[in-house]
Structure formats: C-alpha cells, structure tokens
# Entry
Amino acid sequence: MKNSFLADRMLGTLAKYLRFLDYDTLSADTLEPGNTREDTVLLGIARSDGRILLTRDRELSCRGGECVFLESEDAVGQVRQLVEEGLIDPDLTLRMHRCSVCNHVLRKAKQDEIDGCSYAPKDKAGKKFAWCPVCGRLYWMGSHAANLEEKLKEISPGKGD
Ligand SMILES: [Zn+2]
# Structure
C-alpha cells in the first residue's frame, strides 16, 4: 500500500510535489495558524490517520511515531530523501490524479469546464484534462508539468544506467 503523508508548514512545495506523484498528502497549512500546541495536533492527526508526518523541525521528529525529519531545505532534495528511505516509489512519473492545492482526487474534466477555463491552453489537441471538483481547477500535462517531472527524474536512482 502507498504511504500517505502529513507535511508541516515548512514543506508546502514538497506537499505539492507529492500530490503530483499521487500521494495522499495533507498540509499543516490547512490548520488555523497560531496554535502553540500545533506539534501535538500534527502528531495526533498523523497517528489517527495513519500518515507519516514530514517535518523540518528536528525536535518534533524526535518525539517518536512515524515521523521523518527532512534534511534538505529544497523540495527536490526532500523527495530524494523519501526515495532513499523507501517511503515513496523511485518511479517519479507525475500522475495528475490529485489536486496539488487541496489534495482532492481529480476527475476527468467536462468539455464546458475546459472551454470555460481562462488559463486553458489554446492548443487542446491530444491533451488530457482533469478537474478538481473542490477548487474548480483545471489540470493537464503541459510544459510546466514536464519540467517538474524532468527535475524529479534527475534524482531517480536508475538514472545513468
Ligand atoms: Zn483542489
């Protein structure tokens, strides 16, 4: 079974990348800010949901449970660590199955959703479109996604074979 994750506030970019890779990833950004006991809240959510808590806070990661301290400040480096620790699959192909903003599972976009989208690409031929029913966002594999995939593939262990 695939792991699911909970990312702390320092890891917003990593959360997006994990969602593009189709990992169910909640972000601490969705919690009300200013809770002085947020660490405890995060550990509680991770435990009750069976999620691995990802953090840049070394102290928090020491408090036991399924908690991983990420060494790198950079999201690509963080993905590399997750691959190296066997927490995500080394196949870093982008899936477009999950909204990168809200984590909800995407569905196939309807024609009127594509037509009504101001940022849809002009050339729609051969492109597959997905839709987030929660935030009303349109997704497709474009150059932006290809660039990210390229970047992530740099860290695949199989590279250079
Ligand atoms: Zn969404």
